[in-house]
Structure formats: structure tokens, C-alpha cells
Design goal:
single chain; alpha/beta; 34% helix; Efm5/EEF1AKMT1
Length: 211
């Protein structure tokens, strides 16, 4: 009889409350999903006006895995103008390595302290906390197929790397890549999410898993 004194919700109110809780759970679920995908390839669209051409999912994964293997346990990886590789590395966040992204596109500032604004025209205009020869591997994809762009990006690469270099650029840049960075052509052929007119290749200066 005491239960009769407990206020009861009407069926309409109860249904509205259940709907509210369901919507709240869905919002939380979407938020979690968005957080887990904010680093995934494609979460920031490529901008052709900035000479951006994202790798295919398979290529980005392959290059990210190569960078992790080359850097070793607790290794430090720098991605210069290679955001789709950076995004694949972020998907592996639980692994024992750290990564920084050097990029002209300020949209990548959403990645917080790991983002470093980078303009290849000022190759050594870098934050003080980016110490010389402090990265186990540097992976770079200069934005333009010109010797000037490669030469200036090479200054940044040589400043940051302890030794290992993974360069992605056009096949026509093979001679200049060897000249400025001492890198050699790999067998692995990178693919892009959209077909490009220029053939792209990878170059390294160490025994890599890309051959």
C-alpha cells in the first residue's frame, strides 16, 4: 500500500525520457567515434591549391609501418609535408614512438603540440624544441617537383634526422634526390587516392623494408 504513494511517471513522460537518454547515448557515441577518427586519413580533405595529394590508404599504412620499424622502440618520427602518413601513425597511437608533423596547412593545428608550422622557403625557421638530429627517421614529401623545393626541404631533413631519411617525390627527381640527400630509389611504388600525372617513387638512405 505504501507503494501507492510513490509518484508514477505517465507513459508519455516515460517514453519522452527514454528518447532523451537514447539521443544522449547516440551523441556520446558519435563524439567518441569522431574522436577516434579525427586522425584518420581523409579527416582533413586535401587542398590542391596547396599542392596537397593524399596517399591511398594502403600506401599511407605501408609508409607509416616502415617509419615505425625504422625508428625502433621509443623512436621519434618527423613527417614533413606528409600528413596522410602522420594520420596513419596517429591511428597506431598505442605503440612506443612519438611523432611530429611539419606542415604549411594550419588546419593541422588541430593536432595540438605535435603540429609545427612549416614553410619550405624558410627551411631552418623551426621551434627551439625541435633540436638538431633529434629524430630517428624523417619522412618527407616536398610539395613541389622542383630542385629548389627539394633542396630547401633537404636542409630541414638533414637538420632534424639522426641519419635515416624516407623521401617521397616524383620519379623525375631521382638525380636531385641523390645529389641533395644521398638517397636511392626503392622498389615500392607509392599510390595516391587520386591519380596523378607524375609518377611518384620512394627513396631511402638505409636498408628499408620497401625493397
Amino acid at each position: 500500500e505504501e507503494d501507492d504513494d510513490v509518484p508514477q511517471l505517465s507513459s508519455h513522460t516515460l517514453a519522452a525520457l527514454q528518447e532523451f537518454y537514447l539521443e544522449q547515448q547516440q551523441r556520446e557515441g558519435m563524439k567518441t567515434s569522431q574522436e577516434s577518427h579525427q586522425y584518420s586519413v581523409g579527416s582533413i580533405e586535401e587542398n590542391w591549391q596547396l599542392s596537397q595529394f593524399w596517399y591511398s590508404d594502403e600506401t599511407a599504412t605501408c609508409l607509416a609501418n616502415e617509419a615505425v620499424a625504422a625508428a625502433g622502440k621509443d623512436g621519434k618520427i618527423a613527417c614533413i609535408s606528409a600528413p596522410s602518413v602522420y594520420q596513419k601513425l596517429k591511428e597506431q597511437d598505442g605503440k612506443a614512438f612519438s611523432v611530429r608533423i611539419l606542415e604549411y596547412d594550419r588546419r593541422f593545428s588541430v593536432y595540438g603540440e605535435e603540429f609545427v608550422f612549416y614553410d619550405y622557403n624558410s627551411p631552418l625557421n623551426l621551434p627551439e624544441n625541435l633540436l638538431p638530429h633529434s629524430f630517428d627517421i624523417v619522412i618527407a614529401d616536398p610539395p613541389y617537383l622542383s630542385e629548389e623545393c627539394l633542396q630547401k626541404t633537404a636542409e630541414t631533413i638533414k637538420y632534424l634526422t639522426k641519419g635515416k631519411i624516407l623521401l617521397c617525390t616524383g620519379a623525375i627527381m631521382e638525380e636531385q634526390a641523390a645529389k641533395h640527400l644521398g638517397v636511392k630509389l626503392c622498389k615500392f611504388i607509392p599510390r595516391h587516392s587520386r591519380n596523378l600525372a607524375n609518377e611518384f617513387r620512394c627513396y631511402v638512405n638505409y636498408a628499408s623494408g620497401l625493397d
